[in-house]
Amino acid sequence: MKDTNQNGRKHVHVACAIIEREGLVLSARRSASMNLPLRWEFPGGKIEPGEGREECLKRELVEEMGVEIAVGCPLTPTTHRYPSFDVTLYPYVCSIVSGEITLHEHSAMTWLPPERMLELEWADADLPIILEYQRRKQG
Ligand SMILES: Nc1nc2c([nH]c(=O)n2[C@H]2C[C@H](O)[C@@H](COP(=O)(O)OP(=O)(O)OP(=O)(O)O)O2)c(=O)[nH]1
């Protein structure tokens, strides 16, 4: 997918993993040197040319955290306009199938029950995803 739109504005397409374990969800904190510094996000990253979303997620989770994941149910993709670029996030509910998490890029991680996720300072683009996820969990 192209990473600029008709206006020449940067638009990145990002797959992200809502990783569940024993009723808790993994959140990862961006480092101080990344853009959106110290905001919380779901692990994942930009989809490379020719790459599928699930393939991207599996690759990113190995690169960022050293774990193999199983990719499950997709949630609704969401597009957000940041001051300097646009992002479309493609969220998937996932689980870890092997490995122990080692943080290669993030500055912190935490496991939270879904209803407590909004206590963190999230990247703005993630808020609709968290709300949809919480609604699904409330059944
Ligand atoms: N992985 C991930 N990225 C998110 C989320 N929410 C959100 O706005 N983003 C943004 C942050 C980044 O600008 C982009 C993800 O791309 P990336 O992780 O490959 O980018 P990066 O900042 O590490 O690297 P770069 O743009 O400097 O090359 O999407 C999220 O929940 N997960």
From TrEMBL:
The record lists the catalysed reaction(s) as: 8-oxo-GTP + H2O = 8-oxo-GMP + diphosphate + H(+); 8-oxo-dGTP + H2O = 8-oxo-dGMP + diphosphate + H(+)
Q: Which SUPFAM superfamilies match?
A: Nudix
List, alphabetically, the InterPro entries matched. MutT-like (IPR047127), Nudix_hydrolase (IPR020476), NUDIX_hydrolase-like_dom_sf (IPR015797), NUDIX_hydrolase_CS (IPR020084), NUDIX_hydrolase_dom (IPR000086)
Boundaries of every Nudix hydrolase domain copy: 9-138
Could you say which EC number(s) this protein's record lists? 3.6.1.55
Q: Which UniProt keywords apply?
A: DNA damage, DNA repair, DNA replication, Hydrolase, Magnesium, Metal-binding, Mutator protein
Q: Which cofactor does it need?
A: Mg(2+)
Entry-linked PROSITE patterns: NUDIX (PS51462), NUDIX_BOX (PS00893)
| Span of the signal peptide | none
Highest taxon, organism lineage: Bacteria
DNA repair among the record's keywords? yes
Q: Which family does it belong to?
A: Belongs to the Nudix hydrolase family.
Protein name as annotated: 8-oxo-dGTP diphosphatase
Q: Which organism is it from?
A: Geomonas paludis
The lineage, from the top, is: Bacteria, Pseudomonadati, Thermodesulfobacteriota, Desulfuromonadia, Geobacterales
